[in-house]
């Protein structure tokens, strides 16, 4: 299974466990508080004998009992008789008597805040991982139909660029495949060459700048230190230690698929499978190797 999916599942599991923990903690606290507030068996028996209302806080007190208890408390302990009219309850009502204490409200607020924070964190993680789950950089990407991509390259006279994959797609000439096999040991890349396609990583192998395409020279030319590469990313000049790095590319059911999980080192200096020379003025001044 993809490591990003495992990571995502682990985060979801962790958040789920935190929810369960917080919920269980809140329930336990409520239960403890209710137990503390409940009258003992002796208290209840005594209250029944003396025709007293059940003490405030009893989980099983009826509404009438509760009202009587509140009235009793307000009147300083005077016992109300069952037949006496209900005493008016002064406002504000006692939170303890109503069964929801300030502490409970506070605890529930804390739990809700934790839950919201965790949900936000989980959502942020999902958002961060979403591109790689949906075919962004770091995964297999369906670039487009081979015929349409090649047609666009020929029309515009420039490689097909896919920003989501940080990759250029260029046609690989059939006559260069055998030469490439002599210098490139990566089967995943050679399979793409056989099918007429090469997927070139946009990052310069010198110090990592993004290498743009130069329309006039028909080469890739790095603006940082002037490294130059031909149409299939073989080094032609500048300080770069090798040709441009690349990805495994295949044509599956007429669709170009690039696997951007693994960056494969570019061909060594001196590789020239296509014989393509500069076709016009350079965009970046030519820089000698050093
Ligand atoms: S980063 Fe491209 S030549 Fe230095």
What ligand species are in this complex? FE2/S2 (inorganic) cluster
Structural class: alpha+beta
| Poorly predicted sequence stretches spanning 5 or more consecutive residues | none
The total beta strand count reads 10
Helix and strand sequence: HHHHHEHEEHHEEEEEEE
Strand content: 15-25%
Tell me what you see in this structure.
The longest helix has 35 residues, at 3-37. This protein has helices spanning 3-37, 41-49, 63-74, 95-98, 102-133, 146-156, 177-183, 187-194, and strands at 140-145, 160-162, 167-171, 197-201, 213-214, 219-221, 228-229, 235-237, 246-252, 255-264. The chain is built from eight helices and ten strands. The strands form two sheets. Strands 1-10-9-4-3-2 form a six-stranded antiparallel sheet. It is 41% helix and 16% strand. With 290 residues, the chain is an alpha+beta fold. The chain is rod-shaped. It folds into two domains: 3-133, no CATH class; 140-264, 3-layer Sandwich (Rieske Iron-sulfur Protein). The site of FE2/S2 (inorganic) cluster has 13 residues, from loops.
Give the topology.
Elements: H1 3-37, H2 41-49, H3 63-74, H4 95-98, H5 102-133, E1 140-145, H6 146-156, E2 160-162, E3 167-171, H7 177-183, H8 187-194, E4 197-201, E5 213-214, E6 219-221, E7 228-229, E8 235-237, E9 246-252, E10 255-264
Antiparallel strand pairs: 1-10, 2-3, 3-4, 4-9, 5-6, 6-7, 7-8, 9-10
Bound molecules: FE2/S2 (inorganic) cluster (FES).
FE2/S2 (inorganic) cluster binds at residues 204, 206-209, 222, 224-227, 238-240.
